[in-house]
Design brief:
alpha+beta; Carbamate kinase; VC0802-like; 2 domains; 10-stranded antiparallel sheet; 8-stranded mixed sheet; globular; binds aspartic acid; binds magnesium ion; lysine biosynthesis
Length: about 625
């Protein structure tokens, strides 16, 4: 007998008929021999309606009263669903967050879960009842009983947290789409349903997946190894499994806030190849990495930084044993990259750096917490470690530093983030292992469509590219001539973190220029578009004190990313992405990579086309068009 948490979103419980249909599904799952905790959202657009009511009375309603108001939506659904279950002869009991004992931070309207009491739920389950829990809500403490909510869309988070606390066999998220798609079907109707995705990939695709699954829910699933499936409420189709290797036992205390960083990794077996002054035009990255892929050189980080004038720097890291081959390819291609339109410009120059190491911090908890990257930079600065390259993704920040400083950097980072040394650590990423845990449990909760057949037949190596995401809501900032010394990145990103500005891609240029006797580099990064102007102002104010130059803002950008755990150790994936863009005359303005993600910044008006051509290039498009539910 399995213990399952099922969550039904607003649309799935949008009317009496739909609540009755949900009751039927729940009933069938119990009949198949399972114990069930059901988490529900407010009916249909109830929460939006409540927000409107509040705004009609106050332009700035108290956050405490907002929680009091918004938490009522879910309370309606739990009572009605319990009644519907009782009506068909299934014992059930509804419970609010307070009644369960879902204890959160005292942060109204955006609380994170600290702890969940399981005793009362277990008592009812043991009595054969279905426990129907209100999603999205909690209380500040058993004594205070102040009602909190988790932030919009928070019921997914409630469901997965309950599954973690109860050590449920798995958690099912029922929604109005059939699962997770390879890209946004509104832009690419040929998007296909995935049968599975790892939680790491899902987190990297946050901007794509957020509409289907709250990133905080994925974070909990990943941290506690909760097998998760996203399925349609209207069918018995198997949906998409979100898989996680079983993590080491993690405490259920401070469930959502325990730690932002899970691991500090390092790799000293790295060398960097940089090509300086390559022309800023479509096809350059494609040509370079195409040749590199043909030579079967596997690259790790790639960054391309923007520059004043019309040339870029592209740098990438490789493992030391293949450095010679990588260098030869770069040297052979450099003369051909000379800027044709302006033959007087110096030709591209190849720069090799062997004595480098890559240190990274990773952890799902850094999503939406701008202070974490800043803390890493501050730690390195305090340890006197200069950062040569920075590359970021949603759940990872990697810095290239001098090899001689690697030990010091790692020790300082472990200290700051309280990571025990001695964890199995080769520095390079462990190849993601798909969880097979869920295949042992009865997946066919409704008694039919055993979903296990594909689980058993799924090869254990994930595809190089699982999905493609487009983010049109970013702006790019470039700071010219930032002094190249320890502590600059810490000051810069610490300043932004203080103002709660989340930074996405961060790129530091390779080219170092001496201005006023100080070596300087450009740093570029992206932020949410709505933070663009504010960020520019903040940085301009700090310019004199910190000694950097002009701040350039470009809001007309788009970021397109490919994500896939299978790209690790597979040459040619980056080249294929860049080639798809080059064929369509799309210029790449910035490149940043992590082990399982490659992102390119392109001009905003080419964003949609970029997404389409990349999705097609990786063979993700299906023959059937996906119909987006109204
Ligand atoms: N009812 C809440 C909202 O609409 C929570 C949820 O549906 O997940 O945001
Ligand atoms: Mg929702």
């Amino acid at each position: 007998m399995a213990l399952i948490v099922q969550k039904f979103g607003g649309t799935s419980v949008g009317s009496v008929e739909r609540i009755q249909a949900v009751a039927q599904r729940v009933y069938q799952t119990v009949k198949a021999g399972n114990s069930l905790v059901v988490v529900v959202s407010a009916m249909g657009k109830t929460t939006d309606g409540l927000v409107k009511l509040a705004n009609a009375i106050s332009t700035n309603p108290s956050r405490r009263e907002m929680d009091m108001l918004l938490s009522t939506g879910e309370q309606v659904t739990i009572a009605l669903l319990s009644m519907a279950l009782q009506e068909i002869g299934q014992p059930a009991i509804s419970m609010t967050g307070a009644q369960v004992g879902i204890v959160t931070e005292a942060e109204h309207t955006r609380a994170r879960i600290l702890h969940i009491e399981t005793q009362r739920m277990k008592r009812h389950l043991n009595q054969g009842k279905v426990v129907v829990v209100a999603g999205f809500q909690g209380i500040t403490s058993i004594e205070e009983l102040e009602i909190t909510t988790l932030g919009r869309g928070g019921s997914d988070t409630s469901a997965v947290a309950l599954a973690a606390a109860l050590q449920a066999n798995f958690c099912e998220i029922y929604t109005d789409v059939p699962g997770i798609l390879t890209t946004d079907p509104r832009i690419v109707p040929e998007a296909q349903l995935m049968t599975e995705i790892t939680s790491d990939e899902m987190l990297e695709l946050a901007s794509l997946g957020a509409k289907v699954l709250h990133p905080r829910a994925v974070e909990i699933a990943r941290n506690y190894g909760v097998p998760l499936v996203v399925r349609s409420s209207w069918t018995d189709d198997p949906g998409t499994w979100v898989t996680t290797p079983k993590p080491q036992g993690r405490s259920l205390v401070n469930l959502e806030i325990a730690r932002a960083v899970d691991d500090v990794e390092f790799d000293t077996d790295q060398a960097r190849v940089a090509l300086l002054r390559v022309p800023d035009k479509p096809g350059v990255a494609a040509r370079l990495f195409g040749e590199i892929a043909r030579q079967k050189v596997d690259i790790d980080l790639i960054i391309q930084s923007i520059h004043e004038g019309n040339t870029n720097d592209i740098a990438f890291t490789v493992t030391t044993p293949i450095l010679k081959r990588a260098e030869a390819v770069a040297a052979a291609i450099a003369p051909a990259l000379r800027n044709q339109s302006n033959p007087k410009t110096e030709e591209a120059e190849v720069m090799i750096e062997q004595n480098i190491a890559k240190v990274s911090i990773s952890g799902a908890g850094m999503i939406g917490r701008p202070g974490v990257a800043a803390q890493m930079f501050a730690t390195l600065a305090e340890a006197g470690v200069n950062i040569q390259m920075i590359s970021t993704s949603e759940v990872k920040v990697s810095c290239v530093v001098s090899a001689t400083e690697c030990d010091r950097a790692v020790a300082a980072l472990r200290n700051t983030f309280e990571i025990e040394a001695g964890k199995e650590d080769t520095g390079s990423v462990s190849t993601p292992i798909l969880s097979t845990q869920h295949s042992a449990t009865p997946v066919a909760t409704t008694g039919e469509t055993p979903a296990t057949h594909w689980l058993l037949s799924t090869p254990h190596s994930p595809p190089p590219v699982r999905g493609v995401a487009l983010d049109m809501n970013q702006a790019r900032l470039a700071i010219r001539q930032v002094p190249d010394r320890p502590g600059m990145a810490a000051k810069l990103f610490g300043l932004l973190a203080q103002h709660n500005i989340s930074v996405d891609m961060i790129i530091q240029s390779q080219r170092c220029r001496i201005v006023d006797g100080i070596p300087r580099r450009d740093i570029a990064f992206t932020v949410a578009r709505m933070d663009g102007e504010k960020t520019q102002k903040l940085l301009a104010q700090a310019a004199t004190e910190l000694g950097w130059g002009e701040i350039v803002l470009d809001s007309a950008i788009a970021k397109v990313s490919i994500v896939g755990a299978g790209m690790v150790g597979q040459p040619g994936i980056a080249a294929k992405m860049f080639e798809a863009l080059a064929h369509n005359q799309i210029n790449i303005q910035m490149i940043a990579t992590s082990e399982i993600k490659i992102s390119c910044v392109v001009a905003q008006e080419q964003g949609t086309q970029a997404l389409q051509v990349i999705h097609a290039a990786f063979g993700l498009a299906g023959s059937e068009k996906f119909v987006v539910p109204a």
